[in-house]
UniProtKB/TrEMBL annotation:
PROSITE patterns tied to this protein: UPF0034 (PS01136)
Active site: C83
Name of the protein in question: tRNA-dihydrouridine(20/20a) synthase
A Pfam family reported for this protein in Swiss-Prot or TrEMBL: Dus
EC identifiers of the protein: 1.3.1.91
CDD domains, alphabetized: DUS_like_FMN
Length: 323
């Protein structure tokens, strides 16, 4: 999720769940090819297990990106063949590559030959009018022939003309049946479902049919849904859900270590907005982060102030109704 799952976001999510596989923002392979990998690949050791997601259409560039990802300590490499944004299309990568399954197979093979890490592919069920089930099977076979270790399928097709990236996440209907059928026809390939999953109950239900579930924007806007993932999804009964206030304080320590006065503090605090979603004081928490974060020169103390504001609100007796 470009501009969303940066290192700070991933660190926060790792404080909530120990076992959930995290993903980076999509990194253009071309940018890594031209140098400065630390700008795109630097993270925190605590993030692991974490997958780096690459975008591109040049086998040499993607192979180099795979090499660098392994050198920088990532656990998996994912090729994005699902992003519908205009800037991605202009670089001939993302969802438009679904029209070129042979090329995708070649890209996977190039990455596979350059790293010992698992190489996976994230796709849609189709693109524009290239959206038949037969076309999806042809694409899947090309991914297998290239040596991919797994396929993650967003169960919507992408419209590259006429819909914005945001609309492409909502307007095309979800076709979970297509993904389930794909698993039936390619049983040896690990296949994971993406798109529209909003809770662990739904994720668990799909694990009877598929090999995994990816939750994207819901996990960002409501990160606490991952708090029970270690126990319920991964079966680690020793991992009790952490206390939210403890997560906030641990994240605050991370921010204090990485923030610099030249940085807007909102670069870090924006990831915290949904942490108390559905609980009393959530609105006060969000408002405090927003208002205090907008103050010139604000730093990590904003997080302390927001936590204190929420706690004070919880301790203030409600005004009796006069109705």
């Amino acid at each position: 999720m470009m501009d969303w799952t940066d290192p700070a976001c991933r660190y926060l999510l790792r404080l909530i769940s120990r076992h959930t596989q995290l993903y980076t923002e999509m990194v253009p392979a071309q940018a890594l090819w031209h140098g400065h990998p630390e700008r795109f690949l630097k993270g925190h050791p605590a993030e692991t297990p974490v997958t780096v997601q690459l975008g591109g259409s040049d086998p040499l560039q993607l192979a180099r990106g795979a090499e660098l990802a392994e050198a920088w300590g990532y656990d998996e490499i994912n090729l994005n063949v699902g992003c519908p944004s205009d800037r991605v299309q202009s670089g001939r990568f993302g969802a438009c590559l679904m029209r070129e399954p042979a090329l995708v197979g070649e890209l996977v093979a190039a990455m596979r030959s350059a790293t010992r890490l698992p190489v996976t592919v994230k796709s849609r069920i189709g693109v524009d009018d290239y959206d038949s089930y037969d076309a999806l099977c042809l694409f899947t076979q090309a991914v297998i022939d290239g040596g991919a270790d797994a396929l993650i399928v967003h169960a919507r097709k992408a419209w590259l003309q006429g819909l914005s990236p945001k609309q492409n996440r909502d307007v095309p209907p979800l076709r979970y049946d297509r993904v389930a059928a794909l698993k039936g026809d390619f049983p040896a390939l690990p296949i994971m479902l993406n798109g529209g999953i909003r809770d662990l109950d739904t994720a668990l239900a799909w694990l009877d049919t598929l090999d995994g579930v990816m939750i994207g924007r819901e996990a960002y806007h409501n990160p606490w849904l991952l708090a029970e993932a270690d126990r319920r999804i991964f079966g680690d009964l020793s991992c009790a859900a952490p206390a939210r206030d403890d997560v906030v304080r641990a994240y605050r320590d991370y921010v204090a270590e990485h923030w610099q006065p030249s940085m807007p503090i909102t670069r870090f605090t924006r990831h915290l907005s949904g942490l108390f979603q559905g609980l009393p004081g959530a609105r006060i928490w969000r408002r405090a982060l927003s208002e205090q974060g907008a103050v010139r020169g604000a730093g990590p103390e904003v997080i302390d102030q927001a936590l204190e504001a929420r706690q004070a609100a919880l301790e203030t007796p409600a005004t009796p109704s006069t109705a």
